[in-house]
Amino acid sequence: MPLNTPILLTWLRVALIPLVVGVFYLPESVMPMFDRGLASTCIFVVAAATDWFDGFLARRWNETSAFGAFLDPVADKLMVAGALLVLVQLDRVNAAVAFIIIGREIAISALREWMAQLGASKSVAVSSIGKIKTAAQMTAIPMLLYYDTLFGLIDTRIWGQWLLAVAAVLTVWSMFYYLKKAWPLIKQYSGHLP
After folding, report:
1. What is the tally of structural domains in the chain?
2. Are 62 and 119 spatial neighbours (Cβ–Cβ below 8 Å)?
3. Which residues pair with 150 in a beta bridge?
4. Sign of the dihedral through C-alpha 114, 120, 123, 125
């Protein structure tokens, strides 16, 4: 396994996931609910920043690797799934919305893995719809973790709910987009699957 700065940043993101979740399980005497939301939001934002930064450094320093390409999306999906599960438990996100987002991530990851085995991974490369979905999702989640008024102006509860609804719609849309791109190969190989 290669060990370089981009991969270390990805591992840091994986290590931060339990902290995003864990602060909500601290006793009230240790940390009031508002402070938990603020702490979880800050940790999530730092973790999300490592996602951008590790990719930037890997490309800039030419330190891309097969292991980094594998670990990066896994860390992203774990981070989103962990945060969504906490938000469902806190009754800030509907379980159906969380299921749509997490289910799509699992389905598209499996599709990408299968397409890579066929040597056709470029057919399901990240699209602009997927990028917009990710931006909406990665903005909505910290807002819902914070769950208060920001700077006395922005009600993160309302904005977070709206952005997550947009992310859920784009999640379904992008899933159908990827399935459509992969459909010729799915038809071709479906008769040969065990």
Report:
1. 1
2. no
3. 154
4. positive
d(CA 32, CA 155): 20
- Which sign, positive or negative, has the C-alpha torsion 63, 14, 109, 167? negative
Is there a domain that residue 45 lies in? yes
Convert the pLDDT of each residue in 121-147 to its tens digit: 666 666 788 889 989 999 999 999 999
Distance of CA 19 to the CA centre of its chain: 16
Residue 146: inside a domain: yes
Tokens of 89: 């438990």
Q: pTM for this one?
A: 0.86
CATH number of the structural domain spanning residue 146? 1.20.120.1760
- Terminal Cα distance for the chain, rounded: 32
Domain-embedded: residue 33: yes
In whole angstroms, what is the distance from residue 51 CA to residue 45 CA?
Answer: 10
Q: 43: Cβ–Cβ under 8 A, 6 or more apart, which residues?
A: 16, 19, 20, 23
Domain of residue 111 covers 5-181
Strands (E), the chain: 149-150, 154-155
d(CA 143, CA 174): 23
- Cβ-contact 120, 112 below 8 angstroms: no
155: three-class secondary structure by DSSP: strand
Whether 187 maps to a domain, the answer reads no
Give per-residue pLDDT as tens, 87-121. Answer: 999 999 999 999 999 999 898 888 888 877 777 66
